[in-house]
Amino acid sequence: MYSEKVMDHFSNPRNVGEVPDADGIGEVGNPTCGDIMRFSIKVEDGVITDIKFKTFGCGAAIATSSMATELAKGKTLEEALQLTNKAVAEALDGLPPVKMHCSNLAADALKAAIRDYKHRRGEDTSELDSVLCAGECHGCGGHDH
User: Fold this and answer.
1) Cα separation of 99 and 113, whole Å?
2) Domain annotation for the chain: domains and CATH numbers
3) What SS3 state is found at 63?
4) Tens-place pLDDT, residues 96-127
5) Statement: the pTM of the whole predicted model exceeds 0.90
6) Residues forming the active site
């Protein structure tokens, strides 16, 4: 059912925890299945230098969180914003179709953390607001925008 990469990232997740003095924090969840992901990032000169996650959910949710942190670390904010949930699933050699909609929210959590970082700096977040709140709003943690 799950690829070897999914099982590896579930059994040995990378970057678990919280970044001390995080520059941005993003939390997303899917009320249908109960998966919740919280990402924290440290940014220096526009580059994500540290990223950690805490996830409450199934093995696929943990694996996608772990992989997303690996893919985002060392990237510029612009590069990290290009990461999609589909790309995370592909990096894990795929996910079962039933897990794609609820367990694969990691790229959304990353975008929410970047939105928070930009918001804290007084930067325009309207482009991220529309991405995170398209359709079912699960990325912004409320409508404070």
Assistant:
1) 23
2) 4-125 (3.90.1010.10)
3) helix
4) 888 776 667 899 999 999 999 999 999 999 88
5) no
6) 33, 102
